Amino acid sequence: MGKLNNEKREQYRNDLIGLLKDCKYAHFRREFLQLHPIDQAEFYGTLEESFRQKLYKAIHSNEMAAIFQALDFEEQKHLAVIELDQQYAANMLNHLYADDAADFLSQLEAHEAEAILRTMKAEEANHVIDLMSYPPKTAGSIMTKEFVSITSNQTVQQVIEQLRLEAPDAETIYYLYVVNDVKQLVGVLSLRDLLTASPNEVIEHLMSSRVISIESTSDQEEVAKLIKKYDLLAAPIISPNRTLLGIVTVDDVMDVIEDETTEDLGEFSASRGATDVNLSAFQAAKLRSPWIIMLMFFGLITAGIIDQYEETLEQIVLLAAFIPLLMDSAGNTGTQSLAVVVRGLALGTIEKKGLLRTLRREFSTGLMIGLLCALVLVLIIPLIYGNVILAIIVGVSVFCSLSIATVIGAIVPLIINKLKLDPAIASGPFITTINDILGLLIYFSIATSLLQYL
């Protein structure tokens, strides 16, 4: 259906609905199962509940699992908890990869998850419970148990026979992990090397003993960085004693990157946890309001600074006209540096280049931007307001503020990172407010000292 134009897609959809309406389940199955699972999920999302109930009669639980994976959480919850027969739902989850089932169940209420787990097969349920026991956002919480492990004394022919039996249930077979008698990871073998080797060759002679692996307690971002760095399709997850626990595949890493990017975006905009469009207005307000209230109190500091220099403003009221310009310029420049440093920390480029070099570069950038802005203001303000001293005050204030703002925007996330916290906590509004305060202090200090010349 993905290759059809819109008119043909709509006709195809109507034909499928017609088959469901007429209860021609066998014919529907043949047509429907030819679609890609994503297209199946899109079709499913357009159906009314009465037609979905007919679809469940036509589609087996293992086939429904592929559709289930392509739905968002709210749709999954409605499907598995409310709409489906409990046994059908449990059978469907039995056919999900353990990490996907664990991800879904971990978001349900405890009693809902327990009810489904009790109905699932014991082996599948135990795998899911094991994954759910790991702390959120760790390698263990996103790994899957469906992988192929082999031993070093097997021959190529024996492994190929093993693959015929185990591959259908494995999430990926591009890498085969070699373990010893106590299930410790000792090597890895690619599918390419296996297929091109002699059938009688022993795995010990083919495998690589230098395995790229990561411990189950590591942060999920570390897994993503490792897979990106070494261009892997999957990475083995081990315990502290090198027992092979599971694997994380590249599709899981794509989900991690999306989650982390969304989280960082929330931090930058002071709306952490409130970027999900599925949240209600009340939930979004509840999550956003603490940041806004905190920043409002910082705003009171800004108001206090302006009040402190009331006499200066009373003498030269025109100074007030340039307060927004100064605050916006410093805030924007600081946020730019914040974005550069947070992104550099996420990609690991700052560690390679060095912290001092990064700070020097941002400070030099701030000096150049500040100098350019100051020159523009020194040329324009006299033409508009006819006051050279005012132009110098504003120009020098902007130069100093922008130079300092870049350093603050760079150094705050570095400090937070050293404290083992997410550097994105140094959100854009937070950095902006700090630079507003410092910018006003600089501005009014310079203006007060040169007041006699105005």
- The CATH H-level homologous superfamily of the largest domain: SLC41 divalent cation transporters, integral membrane domain
Outline type? elongated
Gap from first CA to last CA? 73 Å
Class based on secondary structure composition and strand pairing: mainly alpha
CATH fold-level topology of the largest domain: Tetracycline Repressor, domain 2
Indicate the mean pLDDT. 86
Strand portion, in percent?
5-15%
Going across the major beta sheet, what is the strand order? 1-2-3
Helical segment count: 23
Low-confidence stretches: none
Q: Report the count of strand segments.
A: 6
Helix share, percent: 55-70%
Number of domains: 3
Give the SSE order as H and E letters.
HHHHHHHHHHHEHEEHHEHEEHHHHHHHH
Describe the main β-sheet briefly. 3 strands, mixed
The CATH class of the largest domain is Mainly Alpha
CATH architecture of the largest domain: Orthogonal Bundle
Determine Rg (CA atoms, Å). Answer: 30 Å
